[in-house]
Amino acid sequence: MSKGLPKRSEDYSLWYNELVKRADLAENSAVRGCMVIKPYGYSIWEKMQAELDRMFKETGHTNAYFPLFIPKSFLSKEASHVAGFAKECAVVTHYRLKNAEDGSGIIVDPDAKLEEELIVRPTSETVIWSTYKNWIQSYRDLPLLVNQWANVVRWEMRTRLFLRTTEFLWQEGHTAHATAKEAMDETVQMMNVYAQFAEEFMALPVVKGMKTANERFAGADETFCIEAMMQDGKALQAGTSHFLGQNFAKAFEVKFATKEGGLEYVWGTSWGVSTRLMGALIMAHSDDNGLVLPPKLAPFQVVIVPIYRGEAELEAVSVKAREIMAELKKAGISVKYDDRDTQKPGWKFAEYELKGVPIRIAIGPRDLENGTIEIARRDNLTKEQFELVSLPISEKIAILLDEIQEGIYSKAFNFRSEMTTEVNSWNEFKEVLEGKGGFISAHWDGTSETEEKIKDLTKATIRCIPLDRKEETGSCIYSGNPSQGRVLFAKAY
RNA sequence: CGGGGUGUAGCGUAGCCCGGUAUCGCGCCACAUUUGGGAUGUGGAGGUCGUAGGUUCGAAUCCUGCCACCCCGACCA
């Protein structure tokens, strides 16, 4: 049992905030709205980065880096883009400080005003497309498949650790193509990459879909997304992939000579996932005892805790522990041996539970005598005495890790299934939304007016038009007008 | 930006209404006994009470300004 971690059922958001801090993932910083990602939390992010980066490279992308600052004039070149981001931009106006003449301290030097203000990037489309103009002349320069790992700043009114912070870390892919089809294929491919990453590594089932016009990225012709369900019945957008059409090519005059000798605008995409994925990971799987990490993203998959009295016993136990550790490492399993004598075993048990380590092994004198170890699983909190002769320990642990990874996924999958409700009337819609929550699958007439109205009345938004939806005719839940299929509504983070 | 709330030791808090130099728990340090689910005892260290001013013999406490943070809205990955 974790000491004093709030219960999910009592106060979900308090539970979340406390868990993030207690599990050493992140904390609020001295800067309003900005977080410090602590080493344990950052190492989970690094695992995510490593896998995603590998997947991006497998699909032909390479990394590059573009500037943090964007000249103000760039941002305004694509009209709907600037309209979408203008309200949340940090702006650099000066480049120097000086001592105040009245001795009151350091002030901004009014003589050091920038000719043109610089925007701290909220996203990099504009600075990147201004660069692509120089990189692309011919169809031979296409496709251009670039990703960057970066930080961005969006001046949000209210922030929450990982879910919405003023500064956040992310990757943003920006690609350029010769044809609309190629760009669209890329957009869909990257959504699929995100979905695969979420399901395979985060053990997080997601719905793949398209955003409605209202929810579309500012400057995109089409936005694809993956949507996940959190334990409190709220949806979380976990990743987006945008088909930019020729919007940015036109804004930045990026044309290429075709094979046939013509001159055409380039087609673009952009796609990103952020440290928000950390929030998704935490909220999807963790329980009242703390974090539950999928083995594929855990900073270490196994922790070994020695049980002993006195140095002689520790020495004997450690010999066994190191043997096991070596074997696990050889099998590619990450292990930590916690032989600190500054904390007691019970304390360590609770600590690693809080931090979500998938498997804990305890070894004591009794085990040495019996040829056993104690294996405890974080996902279902069960323990077993394992006889070392029955199976090589690395095989045993590998099997368990797979079981845990799968178990966490199917638990989340079943939860999402339970939390997805088909409704056919407005009353039913409101009732489910206020009571049970979750995804609501309902008919919608396809107009922004209806979507807005529903949002105003209930705070529910259309999370996406699922790609795998059945084509079926029906009547809109709100307006009663004809509908061509169901969409997913939910309250969202 | 609108509504509500809070600033006291590393963290969480009592004291404030009714002014007299700060309470308790966790954590920290030392020693001893402990170690298979967050040990116990004894001793100890640690505080410009967010900040600037005012009232007063005297302010954590009363008054005024400012700052920061949290929660609820509008905005958003």
What topology, given as strand order, has the largest sheet? 3-9-10-16-13-12-11-24-27-23-22
CATH class of the largest domain: Alpha Beta
- Unreliable spans are none
What is the radius of gyration? 26 Å
Number of helices: 14
Strand content: 25-35%
Number of self-contained structural domains: 3
Number of strands: 27
Question: Which structural class do the helices and strands define?
Answer: alpha+beta
Q: What share of residues is helical? A: 25-40%
Overall pLDDT, averaged? 93
What's the CATH architecture of the largest domain? 2-Layer Sandwich
Largest sheet: 11 strands, mixed
Please tell me what the overall shape is: globular
In CATH, the topology of the largest domain is named BirA Bifunctional Protein, domain 2
> CATH superfamily of the largest domain, called what?
Bira Bifunctional Protein, Domain 2
Gap from first CA to last CA: 29 Å
Map the helices and strands:
Blueprint: H1 12-22, E1 26-28, E2 35-37, H2 39-58, E3 62-63, E4 69-71, H3 72-75, H4 79-85, E5 91-94, E6 97-99, E7 106-108, E8 113-120, H5 125-135, E9 144-153, E10 167-177, H6 180-200, E11 207-210, E12 222-229, E13 235-245, H7 247-251, E14 255-257, E15 263-265, E16 267-274, H8 276-285, E17 302-306, H9 310-330, E18 335-337, H10 345-354, E19 359-363, H11 365-370, E20 372-377, E21 383-387, H12 393-418, E22 420-422, H13 426-434, E23 439-443, H14 448-458, E24 461-466, E25 474-475, E26 482-483, E27 486-490
Parallel strand pairs: 3-9, 17-18, 17-19, 22-23
Antiparallel strand pairs: 1-2, 4-8, 5-8, 6-7, 9-10, 10-16, 11-12, 11-24, 12-13, 13-16, 14-15, 19-20, 20-21, 23-27, 24-27, 25-26
Helix pairs in contact: 2-6
The chain binds one RNA strand of 77 nucleotides through strand 13, strand 16, helix 10 and helix 11.
